[in-house]
Structures are given as structure tokens and as C-alpha cells.
Fold these 3 entries.
Entry 1:
Amino acid sequence: MAEAEEDLYTKDGTVDYRNKPAIKKETGTWKACPYILGNECCERLAYYGMGTNLVLYFKTRLNQHSATASNNVSNWSGTCFITPLIGAFLADAYLGRYWTIACFSVIYVLGMTLLTLSASVPGLKPTCYGKDDCHPTDAQSAVCFMALYLIALGTGGIKPCVSSYGADQFDDADEGEKKQKSSFFNWFYFSINIGALIAASVLVWIQMNVGWGWGFGIPAVAMAIAVMSFFSGTRLYRNQKPAGSPLTRLCQVVVASLRKYQVRVPEDKSLLYEVADAESAIKGSRKLDHTKNLSFFDKAAVEVQSGQVKSSINPWRLCTVTQVEELKGIIRLLPIWATGIIFSTVYGQMSTLFVLQGQTMNAHMGNSGFQIPSASLSIFDTISVIFWVPIYDRLIVPYARKYTGKKNGLTQLQRIGIGLFISIFSMVAAAVLEVIRLRNVREHNYYERDHIPMSIFWQVPQYFIIGCAEVFTFIGQMEFFYEQAPDAMRSLCSALALTTVALGNYLSTLLVTIVTKVSTRNGKLGWIPDNLNYGHIDYFFWLLAMLSALNLTAFLAVANWYTYKTAVGAIRPSNEDFEKKDTL
């Protein structure tokens, strides 16, 4: 009877919306996922609908130079991927993922609304005397940037939590559900790109041909729909309980290790301190097996006289093996994390230099009068992702599974490495295209022409290749950082993965700044002048291709060193959980 009751509930410690143990058949799995995927699709439509063409808004409405506009977009995008550290900490430590998403969504909607007003209300929007002849005041620019950074804060509570929250709907202790989790990450990224597809096609066209007020207003409405979609699934969700500050636990291990730096770690690792219960002492976390590397931190789990204070454990002097392994796990993730920065720099070129490159080319579709905005070419990155996700999930995984014997076909690190390799060719394609474009400029003296007679659709290969690389690297990272994170630190580790995008954007800004300073010496126009016909952004693309190749070499070295975590046991619902009254 007790066993049957146990099988009724999830074994990963999740609870339902009333804070009671989650019943397997009534909550989670693919029943709950449509609401989360719908939320992500609409939120990404809002984000990309506002961000894809932002570099041109800065140039044409805020009257900024090419390098300045590119750097401002990179800095803002980078901030959007740094703020998830704030949201992740609050989710893991205090609020839980559900309430973190809910609270930060409100901030996001406020930011989108203010941005729409800044582009449409007289007095807030810049005064324009022609299509590209605008003169914003400092106050108008300040309102625009205030709105953008409110959005950056709002997205900080959503980005690190939504993918983890979706994965929480599948019980790690149930092999059937665990197998579906890997598929969830593929379809989660698929939903992101459905939103991005609409943004890069319809919304960019509206911004360029109807107006920026409508172009920003529609994403604001999409964000409101995202919030409604999320709340609609409340009764079906499984929720992980917040486990207290993860940073405190990590600091406790460091302090305890340093205090006992002279203590010798016993050869028999079973002598290291761990609670006797079947479950971990950390709420919402399974026990972790001891690993051999980073053995200095094992000192924190060595029992000595000073570890006992009045028969109670002082966590700043004595930590459990699981707590030590949490810190080890985070440290092991860092080299893998670092190799994602260059990839994100490559990815970031789609919203900066790719757009500026496309602006110099013929944007007409065939012989028609219709012109495709250069920012809309990112639609081919999205189409590539939408094409490759089902191919990967339905063809590559089953085929690879036959040869590797692994349930996911490829390991997460193998998947990431393949994406890093593919990304090199996107920069090669962009560089080769720019070499050919500049040759046409020289041969026909097109230097002063805004658009040379060379179709913008020659950019399609570089976008398509990046889309293919994303399916391997970004989805692989998403799954890797969730699976390898300690149970009670999954939002934080998802945020850690997202910071590679932030640092990639900041690195792009740094490289552009250095390249501009060096290449404009002695009165030269440099690699990235306002008129790219006089520039050499092909050199910049070659530089990124070289850095990507070096980065792949570093990744192969650290991936070979990496040790996967091993979790032990399950988390059973406590009697206290069953006795709780119905509460939201």
C-alpha cells in the first residue's frame, strides 16, 4: 500500500500549485509543457521583435554612428544575459522558479510599454525631418535606454528559469520521463525560433515600412500574451522548492576547506561526512557521489573535533560530501562555460555587422519593388533552426543511438563540440562574401552608392550555418548546464550558461573598439567606417574565424578532462508536505 502511494507521487521533491507533493498523473510532463512553450514563443517574439532591428533604430532614429550603434546593441544584449544571475539567485534561494518568472514578467511588460511610448508619443519620440534625418534630445535617448534596460532586468528573471522550469516537469527518478526531458530542450529551442521567425519577418517589415511605434507595440502585446499563457498552466505545473542561498553553501565549503588546509583527507572516502538519511541535507537536492578531482575541497567534509559545536554541526567548519560536490560541480563547469563565449560573439554578429553588411546590398526580391529589410535576413537563421531541430530529434538521435548506445545519441559535450566546429564556417562564409562585395565595389567604383547591385540573399549561407551550429551548441549547453547542475542550483547554472551570451556581446564590443582604434590610426577610415564600402569588415570576420578555431581546440581539451556528476537516490515527499493546507 505504501509502495503504491509512493508511486503516485514524483520522486524529485516537486510540489503542485497548492504546495502539496505533485501527483504524477495530474501534473507535469507534456501536459504542462504547452503553456511553458507558448510563453517562451511569445516572449521571444517580443524580445527579437524589439531587438533584431535595434541597430538600425539607433542609427536612423537616435542618430548614432555604425560602430556606436553596434556597440550599444552589443552592450544591451550583453546586459540581457547578465541579469539572469539575479533572477536565478532569487529563484534557487527564495522565490522558486514560478514566482520569479511571474514577478519579472511584470517588469518586462512595463519596459516594453515604455519603449513603445518612446517611439510613438510626440515629445518622447525623436523629431525627424526626413526618413533618416532625426535629432533626438538627450532626454528622449535616456527614455529609450531606460525602457531597454528595464526589459533587460525583466528578462533576467525569465531567461534562467523558463527552460529549467520546463525541465522540472519531468521526474529525474523516472526513466521514462527523464528520456523525454532531452526532447523537451529541442522543442523548447524550436518554440524560441518560431517566435524569432515572426519577429524577423513580419515585425521587422512593420518597423521599416509602417513605423517604429507599431513595430515596438506589437512585441509589447506579445509579451502580455506570454504572461497569460504562463499563468494558464498554473494548476498543471510541478514546482521545485527553493533551497536557500546556493552562494552561502559554496562559501561554506571554501571556508571549511581553508580552515582545515593542514588536515589530511582519508584514503577511505566513506569516512568523509555525509548525513545518514537516504536524502541529502540540502532541501530539494539528491545526494551526490564523491569524485576524485579537486580533492582539496574534500577537507571540508573531514570530521575533526572543531567541526562539532555543542553536539550540532557548524556548516562553516564541516560540510557534507554532497555540499562539497556542489562546489566541485560548479568549478568543473567553468572551463566548458568559458568556451561558449567566442561562440556567442559569432552569434552576436547577426544583429550587428551582418545587418550593416546587408544594408549595403540590393534588398529587392527579384524584379519586384518589394525590399526585404537587412535585419530580416536573420529569418534564415531561424528557418535553419526550425529545419534542424526535428532532423536532430527524429533522425540524428535515433541513428547515433544505434552506434553509441547512449539514450540521447550523442553526449552533451559531443553535441556542443560539433556546433563549435560548424560555427567557424559561418564566419568564413561572411568573410568570403565581403571579399567578393568589396571587389565589386572597387571594380565598378561603387564607393558612394548606398546599395551595390549584389543581392542581399548572398548572405543566406552565413545565417543558415549559424542556425545549424545553434541547434548543436546552444541546445547542448542548455541541456548540459541543467543536467550537470546540482539539483538545488539549476536556475543559477542556467543563468551561468546565459552569461556566455553576455560576455560574447561584451567581447564583440571590445574587439570592435580595439579594431577601430588600431585600424583608424594615421587618419585611416579603419575596418568598420560608416560607409562600409571603404572598410574591411572581412578582416573582422576572418579574426572571429581564427578565434573560433582556437576556441574549439581549447574546448576539446577541457571536454576530455570533464567528469560527469552522479546523483544518488530520490527525494521523497515528507509527512509535513502531505499535511500542508491548500495554499497558493
Note: Strands lie at 127-128, 134-135, 287-288, 308-309, 312-313, 361-362, 452-455, 567-568.
Entry 2:
Amino acid sequence: MAKLLFLFITFFITLPLSLSQSTAVDSCNGIFLSYNYTSGYPIPPTLVPADPSDQPYRFESILTILNNGLRELKSWRVYVRFEHGEVLVSASNAVLDDGTLLPANVGNGTVFAGFPERDLKTAVETAGDWSQMGAQVQLVGTQFGVAEPDVPLPSTITLANDGFSCPALTKLGSWMHLCCTEDSTRRSNITIGEDIHPLQNGDVTIMYDVIHSYETNYWTQVTISNHNPLHQLDNWKLIWEWKRDEFIFAMKGAYPSVIDGTDCIFGKQGEHYKEMDFSNALNCERRPTIIDLPPTMANNSDLGMIPFCCRNGTILPPTMDQTKSVSAFQMQVFKMPNEFNRTQLIPPQNWKIMGEVNQDYQCAPPVRVSPSRFPNPTGLSSESTAIASWQMVCNKTESKGATPRCCVSFSAFFNDSVVPCNTCACGCKSSPSNTCSASVQALLLPSEALLVPFKNRTRKTTEFAKLHNRPLPKPLPCGDNCGVSINWHLNTDYEDGWTARITLFNWDETDIVDWFAALQFDKAVPGIQTMYSFNGSALPGIPANNTIFMQGKPGLNYLLAEKDGKNPKKNPRVPGTQQSVLMFTKKTTPGIKVARGDGFPTKVFFNGEECSLPSILPSNAYRMSVATIFFGFLLAVVALLFLQ
């Protein structure tokens, strides 16, 4: 025991032990627990002497647990009854047992659980190796109202594992300790109440609903809901972190990106579930990645048959289709022995969701909410209720320097020049200077050049510049490199109203299904009256009643890919296009100056991504040529014929 005591002192070289402390450790033949307050000082704001009870102080303490017994302690848990309004900021070698992430309010007490190492071995099986026998949890946080020379100790500490009897505490100044001994008849009565919180709003919310619970496992339904009116998720991926060695045995409606039971076979799961065939387990990773199933699996009796499942990872905004703004799946989760209780239900932590286009979402920790209700699967008018429910709220964050994937060009009836997409609007190669310039402003275009791929526009663009006596830079500017471009054209502007035409161009080799666009204006939106060939309307209050939302009509809500011209050897490739005319009134927008800028959008979104806008607007200082007027008139006639 003298050697063990030496190792204990060596391991805690930063925690000098008095003779009484050494004696306490040496005399314990069970689980030794101690809590030592090491330092603290006042932090802003300064509230003393006016309000000393609310004065915040930093505190630093060390919670120690040591297995001096003859049996390995599985999944250690220690209850600390804080009582000074403590806010815990950091804790080494442990997590909060209820899954709450730090910083956390622990003023009413909390249970610590070992992490990443949860089990404490004995001195016998480790030859007295303290690093395997014990854990030292260094705590840093804020407490209120306890100033020196008083010490902000918790009212109690105790072991929260079943099968142990813990005596009363011994307190010595800033140090407190006890020794818990084995008692197979004792059950821990430590319960930390988990508040039920109201549902919160966010861009994306995730519900974790336990729908069936058994002694060793449970079934949960995970529901992803998109609440952002202008963004969608493409090919979503959902990631979380198991904190208690759980593993996924079965799923319906979604699948892990990696199917592998190896971690279970060689891990703690395999030690307990000795008779389980882990070749049938879907995933044993601590941080699994979940992906959606294709629509062909929706009616599969083994993998599908879950409402809102199997949509290739596409979650549309609710403004486009409420029924397609949700995705759901179910999974069977197996627990470890220390969690064997059908009421012991704890969700995973550190949730993250991302899409192929909209990748940046920040998710809050799981929050316990009232159990969800579901329609009765038998078709009866009654509802079924989840056993327990948690909600995660995720909000989109804007990435600094993110490159757009779409761009906008402007044109108008009073100018024969099109203001094109910006140079390198969607990015350029790292060193494009040999063939083109990434810094030179894009050249104004003739309207017919909008239908031609950038690499085939050079002749039309240069001739148009010479016609208007505009200088040509050397080298010429690079292209926009966008897969989707949008042209906004002012058609007319008269006393009582005005019209505009929007044209979508798909320059990629893949069809775009279920597309949608949103345009924001400073003043124009209240005047929208009619939209031809697209379904669309103003979105009230999103934000400030300044947004027009549009999508293709049923059966036509796809934007075809770029394809070869009629004669591939002579004709350039042709983009997939969709076009609509919008009609506005001026009665509800008095004072609007359409041609001076109010008729052009200030922001444009396509499939949830903000597009690059030109830095200038068409000027009305130039009159249009007869040929350009005729070309614009011809496009309008073709559009109207298409509407018939």
C-alpha cells in the first residue's frame, strides 16, 4: 500500500497531500472520492459591496475518484451537489451524465461520467497503476457569492453507481472526501431532474423520439425538418457522437455511410454481447454518418415504409412544398450494461447536419421536450406518443469567402447592352493570367450572347465592343464559371406598371429537378401581380415583405442540362432554359423608380444559394438599336406563345 500511495502522490504532483489526506486514501478499501477547492478570484462585473450575493467568482477544483477495491468499477458516475449557482465551464476526463455540453448551469447538482475512459481497474490487475485505477477531473467554472476566506464547496459528493454504500462526508478546510464500499443490495437514488423545454425554432430542427424501449435496446425516430423559406438541403448527411458505447443494429428509412461491426467485435460491445452476430449490426462507429435512401426504397418492407423517408437526401423549403420539407428514419440502438434500464434513455451528442450545397449549420445540444405525437399507423383518428423526445436546433452560418454557384446578369429595354455575370463570379483557377484576366471587369454583351456558352462568346463580345468603340483589355476577362446563370430583364416601364422577364440557364451536364428561386427587392415586391409560366408569389414578412418566391409549375419543375447544338460540329452547345414574365403595378408602390434601380433585385437565390450579382446596372444613357429592340420583342413573343 505504501507503493500505491507513492504512485497516487506522483500522479497528483499538482495536488500536495497532507498526512490526513494520505491516511484517508490509504485506509479506503473501496471507491475513494474527494473534492478539493484549489483557487478562485472575483471576475467582472464588480457587484460588491452593493450586491455581494450576486458577485461572480472563478473557481478551480479537482474531483478525484480512485478504485481501491477488488472489482473493476464499470462506467463510473459521481454526483456533486453544487449549491452556489455554479456554471461549469470545463471538466477534464469526464462529461455530464445527462449529455449536456459545457458551459452548463450545474447549480442544482450534476452527475459526472468518465470520458473517454469510463472504467476504473483495480490495483491487483494493473500492479498499482494509478492511471488505470483512478481519474482526476479538473473543474473550472463560475460560482456566485462566496468570497475568501470562505470556501465554495459542494454540499455533498457521492458515487452514483448501483451496488455501493457511501458514508457521510469528511470535510477538512477546502477538501472533502469519503470511501464507498460494495453493497450488492444498494441501488443509487441519485436522480437529476431533466427540465422539459418548449420547442424552439431554427433553420433546421432535428427530433430524436424514442418510440419503443426495452431493457437492452430501443427504437428511435429521427426527424429532420427544414424551416428556412429560402434554403434546401441536398444529399444531407447527419452526424452525431455516441457517449456511452451505443451502436446501431438496424435502420429503416436511412443508412450509415459505412456498414461495419468491427469496432463492436473488438470493443466493449463484443465483450458483453458475446452471442450477438455483429455481421448483422449496421454501424459501431462512435461518430456515424447517416445518409438518405433513394426513392426506389420507399416501399421496401425491410428498409423503407417510413413516412417522409427515401428522398435522396433532398429536403425542400416549406415555401416550396410542405410535405417535402421533412425527412425521417428509424433505428434500433443497443446500449451497454450500465444503461440496462428501459427508462435510461440518453440521446447522442455533438450533432451536425450538412448538405451538398448548404453545408454550414451550427447545431445546439439536445434539449428535452414534451414527447412528440404521431398519427396512428393503423389509420385511426387517435395519436401515438413518443416515450421521450429531444430537439436539436440547427441554424445556417455564412462561410466567409464562400464561392457562389450561380450568378445574375442584368438587361433592360432602354439599353442594347447586357451587364453580364461578374468575372470569376463562381471562382477561377488559381493562376488564370496566362489565358484570361481574373481581375478585369466582364465585357458588356449583346443580348443574343446570353444563349451561347462563354467559350463561344469571344467573337460576339469583341465585335460588340468594337461597334460601341469600347476598349478591349488584354488578356480578356475570364468567364463567370457558374453552373447556373439568371438573366433579369426589364421589359417595359409605363405610368401604371411595369414588366420584367427572368430567364434561367443551366450550363451543367445534369438536370436540375425541383428548382426554386427567390428574389429580394427594395421596393418592388408589393406591386407583384402576375407571374406567367412559373408558380410564384410574394413571401410576406420574409424578410420585411421584400421577397418573391418562384418555382416551375407541376410537371415542369426541372431545368434541363446543357446539350449539343443541332450540328455539334458547327453549333455551340445549348443551355437548358426556363423563362417567365412578371407583371407589376405601381399603385401599391408609389414613387418607385423602376429604370433607376428599383426594378432590379438586390439579392437572388437559386436552390437556396445566394447568387453573385453584377456591380453595375444597365444605363439608360444609350438608346437601343433597332435589331436589339426586335430581338427583345421576339423573345417576348416566344415567351407568350410558350405560355399558351
Note: Residues 533 and 642 are 8 Å apart (CA to CA).
Entry 3:
Amino acid sequence: MEGQLGLIWEQARAPVIVPLLRLSVILCLIMSLMLLVERVYMGVVIVFVKLFGRKPEKRYKWEPMKEDMEMGNSNFPMVLVQIPMYNEKEVYQLSIGAACGLSWPSDRIIIQVLDDSTDPTIKDLVEQECRRWASKGINIKYEIRDNRVGYKAGALKEGMKHSYVRQCDYVAIFDADFQPGPDYLWRSIPFLVHNPDIALVQARWKFVNADECLMTRMQEMSLDYHFKVEQEMGSSTYAFFGFNGTAGLWRIDALNDAGGWKDRTTVEDMDLAVRASLKGWKFVYLGGLKVKSELPSTLKAFRYQQHRWSCGPANLFRKMAVEIARNKKVSAWKKFYLIYSFFLVRKIVGHLVTFIFYCVIMPATLFVPEVQVPKWGAVYVPSLITLLNAVGTPRSLHLLVFWILFENVMSLHRTKAMLIGLLEAGNVNEWVVTEKLGDALKIKSGAKTLKKPRVRAGERVHLLELGVGVYLFFCGCYDLAYGNNRYFIYLFLQSIAFFIVGFGYVGIFVPSSQ
């Protein structure tokens, strides 16, 4: 049997395997350079923004809202605050309390809680909380519907249909784990009031549980780069970036002009942002305006979130690429940015390079000495990309190696989700609400040591990650025995990382209720 396999390998090696592997290496090197150029370009823009002080307040007209003695509060625009939620037992009080604590004339703001909860007990709790705030004089509406069609997009769309919304000028959206500061509206609304071409003001996320575990630290590093570099760069150069789905303030006329909420993908926020941008609307990102939020701290919740964030953009790209290319209202440069930089490089190439190149193709070249990966492609390019990504969170530079290993592992899950979205296959529209814990973990633990809950093996074991871990471990053993470049050090470390995630030993364990 071994002899037959060896014979097949030798016969296929020269005519099939070598050319295919060489082609794969070339394609991956090209994609790596695409990713590097994109990262360097964004870095240059951010340096320019920081050096020359191109703050939003300087690029756009911004004046603080002032009370008019004659008009009174009617001088202030009417604001709707939407809080979509689904079985949010642990955090509903935090988000509702923060929204009701927003500083704004009380007769010029409406809080709208859109409760899609299926648990009747949680529904009762949320409704009671709304009544409690209403008894304090807060204009708060508790809205439910008899189905979950469209998930979050469906709830937001349904919420906009109520008659009292017609009097509103702007709508602020906060997910159930977000807690805006009291001054959120005072700092964001002037951009919309004084600049009629601005549709969206996006605030930055501040993570209240970043230090909860190593996995949340890794997430903080990735998301800090997203906000400090990607969002800032898009806002400064193209007046466009992907709406983050929460902590944003929309001009309702712009939202309606773009076609309103659509549930055709799992990234309804990005969908709306792209459509609004193609209508000519501008977006502003405020890095100094931070809204508290929670990072998923269990591996299960994080994987569901990453599936949605990777599958949705790829599926949206499939649906909108032609529409973007044919659009007549925006410049050719902005269309190129949307198609090439925003979608192709960041949402597709980034995932492919991280997993296919570094976890599949490069290890495979160990068995085919005829195919070599140049040192600049194997070491220098990924090192530079990694360093550029790490600048967003200086306090976590000492965790850089762990971040690289973890991101490579998660790239398998993201690549799979991206391909599902791009090919519109399988669970392309799967929507699982990210589990929030709030203070539940502290309350349930009551001590430093947590009792591990009983978890089904099928829920905790991830076979694809284990399979890749075995492959990398085998490649490491082969390189240790026959190689001369010490590549096995990386391969063994990366295989261990895949095993750790594959067996579910990442994040925290939540004690089950007794």
C-alpha cells in the first residue's frame, strides 16, 4: 500500500503537483502584496491625519447646539433612539438605563426598545424596565412583533413604521450591550445639523471586558486597528466606511433615501452604508467619542459573531459589485475604493492569505523542494503586516505572538464563512445573536475559581481546527527530520494553537444556572 502511494506521488509530482503548488505560491504572494500595500497606504493616511490634525470638527462645520430663547426646545432636532434586543437578560438594564440617561431635551427624544425576545420571562422583565423609566417621565416605547423576520434588520425596519417616528429627524442605534455616555448626542448631532450632506456619525467602541481573558485581549487588538485605522482612514479620505451597526447616529432622510433596512445579508448595517454612499451621502467617524460595549468572551459566541462578520460582507459583495461599478453618482475613484480596497482586499483576500497561504500552502512546500517561497514573502511581508496591525493597541504588543497564532486559527473559520457568503451556499443567512454576559459571570461565580459546566463534546470540539492542527504538526515533524530552516518552530506552535481552539480551551467557561 505504501509503495503504491509512493508511486502515485512520484508520477503526479512533476506534471501536476509542482506546477499547481508553484501557481498557488505565486497567487498567494500577489495577494500578500495587495494586503501589504493596503496596510501601508492606510498607515500613511493615518500618519497624515495625526500630523496635520485633520479632525472631523475641522473638516466639517461643527458648532455646539444652543437653546433659542424664542423657540425654546423646538430649536433642537427630534431624536429617536432604537435599542434592538433578543433575550438579553444579562444586559437589558444597562442599555436601557444608558439610553434613558442621554442628555437631551426630554420632549425632543424618544427611546424605542425593540424586543424580539422569545423567552416570556425576559420579555416581562424588559417591559417592566421600560415602564419603570416611563414612570420617571422618560418618553420610552416598548415595541414587540409576532415574528423575527429579518432578525435585527427586520426589527429596525418595523420600528421605523410607527407613527411617532415621523416627527423624528435622526435615529441613534445601540445594541443591547452598548452604553452611550450622557454627552453622546451633544457631540454627534451638530455634524448632522450643520452639514446637510452627512448621513451618518459613527462613534468608536470601548470594550469594558477587554481584560477578561486572553481571547478578549486578542479581539481588542483586532478591533482597535479596525477603528483607529480602517474607520479613521475611510472617514478622512472617502467620507465612507462600513457602519458598525451600533453606536451610530443616522439622518432619517438619508436612511430612507438609501432604501431603508434590508435583510438580504447578515450585515444589514454594511448593506445600508454602501447603498447610502452610492446615493452620494457622506459619513463621519468620531474616534474621540467612545461608547462602552462588551466583547464576546466565550468561544462559541465569538465563532458565531465571526461567521456573521465574514460571511455577510462576502455575500454583500456578490450582490452589489455590479451595482457599485455601474453607479453614476459617485466618482470612479470611490467606486474603485469600494470594490478593491473595502471589499476585495479586506473582506476576501485578507482571509484567504492568512489561512490558505500561511496554514496550507507554505507548509505544503516542505514536501516539494522544487517550489520555494521567497524569504520576503515568508517572513518580511507577514511581519510588516502584523506590525502595522498591532499599532492600534500598544499596551498589547507583548501579546503579539499569541495574537498571530490566534488570528491564523480563526482564519480557518473566517475563510469558510467567507466562501459560504461568496458562493451563497449553506447557512449563508444564518443569524445567531452574540451572547452577552454583562455582570452575570461575576454574580454567578461569587469567587475567583469557576466551576466548569458540563459541555457536550460536540459543542466544544471543532474537527476542522483539529484536522489542520494534525496537518501542521505532521509538517513540523517532517521539517524537523529533513528540513534545514527551522520552520518547524512555527509549525509546532501553530499546530498547538489549532489544537487548543479545536478542543475549545479558549475564552471563559460560563457556569450554568442551578
Note: Residues 2-52 form the longest helix (51 residues).
